[in-house]
Amino acid sequence: MALEHAILVSLLEKPGSGYELARRFERSIGYFWTATHQQIYRVLGRMEGAGLLHVREVPQRGRPDKKEYAVAARGRAALTAWLHEPIEPESVRHELAVKIRGAAFDDPAALISEVERHRKAHDDRLGRYLTGELRDFTGPEAPRPLDAGGELQHAVLRGGIAYERMTIAWLDDVLDTLHRLRTATPRT
Fold first, then answer.
1. Is 4 helix (H, G, I), strand (E, B) or coil?
2. Model confidence over 8-56: pLDDT tens digits?
3. Half-sphere exposure in the Cβ direction for 112 (13 Å, CA)
């Protein structure tokens, strides 16, 4: 997926400035796609030049005017075309998994702190996802009923929650294995 597609989806959900778009990438879009502020601004400029976006200047008091981006007809057509194209299932590239396999040729216990660090990062991300789910979808302040966009956003978030839970369970299994190997009698 190109960053352009993620930007088009976000701007169709709600037009906004580059700053607002970057904030969305830090929150909900970040569940499945990450981008830096610089990447977002660079791609917005390219998309504007290609006629995929409309831009309007929004005056602000005491600050420079901001640009607010919205999807143009050409951008909607590009997204529609992409939505109808088949994509290949993603394959996993997992550096930590290669390290875990490689630990058989070194001291497996040396990986314990690295796996614990990864587990904490996934646990923290799961916490953010669950907080966002409560805030945006399941909590007392969440809109009811959800529109189609909200239902699909929640489906993506549920996938992220399931992935983080699966990853944490796997990392717990790896930690159990590493601890067991640390206390096991070395093979000769």
1. helix
2. 999 999 999 999 998 888 777 766 778 888 999 999 999 999 999 999 9
3. 13
Within a 10 A sphere around the Cβ of 168, how many other Cβ atoms? 17
**Cα–chain-centroid distance for residue 53?**
23
Find all residues with CB under 8 Å of 87, minimum gap 6, and list them: 1
20, 111, 119, 147, 161 from 23: Cα distances, Å: 5, 34, 25, 22, 20
Rounded Cα gap, residues 133 and 166, in angstroms:
18
For 74, half-sphere exposure in the C-beta direction (CA atoms, 13 angstrom radius) is 9
**C-alpha–C-alpha distance, residues 186 and 188, integer Å:** 7
**C-alpha distance from residue 30 to each of 34, 102, 118 (Å):** 5, 31, 18
Residue 8 to residue 81: CA distance in whole angstroms: 12
- Torsion sign across C-alpha atoms 42, 28, 57, 5: positive
Q: From CA 110, how far away is CA 26, in angstroms rounded?
A: 33
Question: pTM for the whole thing?
Answer: 0.81
Cα separation, 57 vs 17, in Å, equals 10
The amino acid that residue 119 corresponds to is R
CA distance from start to end of the chain: 49
Task: Specify whether the CB–CB gap between 79 and 5 falls below 8 A.
Answer: yes
